Amino acid sequence: MIETNHITKRLGGRTIVSDVSFRCEPGTITGFLGPNGAGKTTTMRMLVGLAEPDSGEAQILGGHYRDLPNPGRRVGILLDASAQHSGRRGREALAVSAKTIGVPAQRVDALLELVGLDETAARRRVGQYSLGMRQRLGFAHALLGDPEVLILDEPANGLDPEGMRWMRELLRDFADRGGTVLLSSHLLAEVDAIADRMMIIGGGRIRAQGTRDELLTSSGTIVEAADLAGLDAALRGAGLAAHPVDGDRRLVEAEPDVVADAAMAAGVVLHRITPADDAGLERLFFELTAPGADAPSPTTDHVPSELTGATA
Amino acid sequence: MSTTTLTPPIHLNTARAHARPGLGRLVAVELRKMVDTRAGFWLQIATIALTVIAVIARLTAGDAADHTFAAVLDVGVKPAAILLPVAGILLITSEWSQRTGMITFTLVPVRSRVLRAKIIASLVLAVAILAMSVGVVAAGVLVASPGVDGTWSGVAPLIGQSAVYLTSGIVTGVAFGAVVLASAPAIVALFALPIAWTAVASLSLFAGAAPWLDTRVALGPMPHEVMSATQWAHAGAGLALWMLLPLVIGTWRITRREFVA
């Protein structure tokens, strides 16, 4: 189990992670989705004690990561596949960690085989590895201690389609046997294909979280108004369910025309009204994480084309 | 990627699986990390090779009467005295420059334990290299000038002093590495700062303080003359400034330094 309570991290006057709270339950795969620089990596590093939150608290398996006596046997971590000594051979890199956490040396060979690094690859120095090979070595490393929890930062990076499918099956099997998985990605399609639950992060804040269906349901219509209280009253009056998304925004579980009618009837001026459900998750993702998501935007359609291209 | 099953072929969940890794195990791991990379391996090979070359060069030059154990040891420990601190630096800085610290400090989150293991491992390496140096020197002296008068005088204290010389050297390397946390600047600082300090200390203003704080002068006699109490006091003061102070600052740095993108 992984749990964070309102963790916040500032660096050089900038808030990198802001008031992030979530829970990852055993038996589930949670996808941590957001553009590069949204705060995923910093959040994951705070989970395992590589960085300290300025406020709030992160817990793994019911306590602080730092207090686990031998964390390598309970939590498998892949935070940066390139964080291996380039002059060390692949097998040796695993053997050193196996020795540290007290895992028999035969386990190293079993895992090299599992991730598909053959004898030649295992004998090469990590500096000569391709990104895909590093990623596989990183998977072997994360699984070394037969953990209950997996924390993987951009694990699909550098994997080919076959590797992606392999990873999906591996994580599914891990979760089905009661494991807890938290993985991050900046690509919606990856998370959508693997995860049971998603958390969408943008600008350091969790913008939305839930199962795919929950997120799709809630991606009805996004509205903004200067008179928030008036808007809330109007929506309530019309019997429409609304969720605060980002402080001064509402996600309404209804079609835009219904929402517009309700606002009109109550005399509330809308500054922004966006149909969200036709583009589904992708639209929700961009709506919630677009660079200007914090500020009211004068247009209803401001998704840069290079972003849409990135997830296609 | 032949199979997707994760069921371990070896029974892993033994009673001790979740126990904290002992300090002995961490020391063994850190020792291994010093020699299992390309750079680490060749650094040790270079130390051994240079020791053999230095000893042979000393024994084939000059008058045989000068080839006492003390005179040859003075030359024989020089390669180790120069290269061991570099091994000490790399032991710390590679965790940052190669980013292996993200693995080391997630497997052992209490970073002071890792540092303790690294210091002990570096002491073990220094003693092993000292044994090698003394062995090469003794073998060379036995072959080249066994009959010279006074050849073997002061062997035990000189070996003891050399042990202090080499172990303090590698720990100083660890300390510099911990302060700087980057390989190249730490190596430059380790070699340039004492030289710069010698230059500063040569000013008449510092004439009184110089022997106390210049480790190059204070530690220099260790391999070839049995030191007096005053010399030991100088050496101790120099090590407090050049080894202990950086070690304290470095410990503070290592335990607090975050891994943020």
What does this protein structure show overall?
The complex is a heterodimer of chains A (312) and B (261). Chain A has helices at residues 40-47, 90-101, 106-114, 119-123, 131-143, 161-176, 188-194, 212-217, 228-237, 256-266, 280-289, 305-311, and strands at residues 2-11, 14-24, 29-33, 55-60, 75-78, 149-152, 180-185, 197-202, 205-211, 221-225, 242-244, 249-252, 270-275. Chain A has a six-stranded mixed beta sheet with strand order 5-6-7-3-8-9, sandwiched between helices. In chain A, strands 11-12-10-13 form a four-stranded antiparallel beta sheet, with helices on one face. Helix content of chain A is 37%, strand content 25%. Chain A has 312 residues and is α/β, with parallel strands linked by helices. By secondary structure, chain B is mostly helical. Helix content of chain B is 72%, strand content 0%. Chain B is built from eleven helices and no strands. Chain B has helices at residues 23-35, 38-60, 69-76, 78-97, 101-107, 111-144, 155-180, 183-201, 210-213, 215-219, 229-256.
Largest interface: A-B, 62 and 46 residues
What is the overall number of helices of chain B? 11
Helix amount of chain A: 25-40%
One letter per element, helices H and strands E, the order of chain A comes to EEEHEEHHHHEHEHEEHEHEEHEHH
Major pleated sheet of chain B: none
In quaternary terms, these chains amount to: heterodimer
Ends distance of chain A: 32 Å
The low-confidence runs of chain A, each spanning 5 or more residues with pLDDT under 50, are 294-312
Mean pLDDT of chain B: 89
- Taking all residues together, what is the mean pLDDT of chain A? 86
Shape of chain B: globular
Order of helices and strands of chain B: HHHHHHHHHHH
By DSSP, the count of extended strands of chain A is 13
Main sheet specs of chain A? 6 strands, mixed
Shape of chain A: elongated
